[in-house]
Each structure stands twice: as C-alpha cells, then as structure tokens.
Design a protein that fits this description.
3 helices, 0% strand, flat, 59 residues, mainly alpha
C-alpha cells in the first residue's frame, strides 16, 4: 500500500474475497474474448537511464 497516498488522506478500497472470486469467475466465463496483448504488464520500476535493454537481459 502506498503510504504517500494515505498521508494525503486517501483510504484504500479493499476487495472482499467474494468480489475477487466473482471477478475471476467472470473472466473465466469470457476467456475466449480476452486479448492478453492488451493487458500485458508494463511496469517500470527504475528510471529510464537504469533500465536494461533486451540485449543486456539476454546475456
């Protein structure tokens, strides 16, 4: 949980186990309609100058 957001007074909305289970059920029910290319993770944790290039990762 991001403590900086909480320090601004924002409170997280936590999902119940039932809500998560329903989301999984719904996704499974419609899995043939999911295009995984559109939801691929794109997380960048490091500044641009510190990121590894594909060549650096492969070696």
């Amino acid at each position: 949980m991001n403590t900086n957001l909480r320090s601004l007074g924002l409170e997280p909305t936590l999902l119940s186990d039932g809500a998560i289970a329903e989301l999984i059920r719904l996704a499974a029910e419609h899995r043939e309609r999911i295009d995984a290319r559109l939801i691929a993770p794109r997380v960048e944790w490091r500044p641009q100058q510190q990121r590894a290039t594909p060549r650096q990762v492969a070696s």
